[in-house]
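Q: Here's a chain of 77 amino acids. Please give me its 3D structure as tokens.
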Amino acid sequence: MLNTPPRHAQQESVTCQLPETASGKSLQDPTLPPLVAAGLGERLRAHYAQLMNDPVPEALLRILKPLNEKGRVDDGR
């Protein structure tokens, strides 16, 4: 008797092709025009800079407080 797995358990070789644009160009390495990328980068930096200046919401502080206290206890081992 052979020890082969059932057919449904056997792995089949599956190849995947990346999608292509209408022009046939591969979508593997999407790129943006340099001006668009620079503008997007500026806007993201400005957005995240504002978030860093905003106060931490009280609800999040309540969640973090017990975790922070537990960390202090664990650090003292």
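Q: Can you summarize the key feature?
A: The chain has a mean pLDDT of 77.
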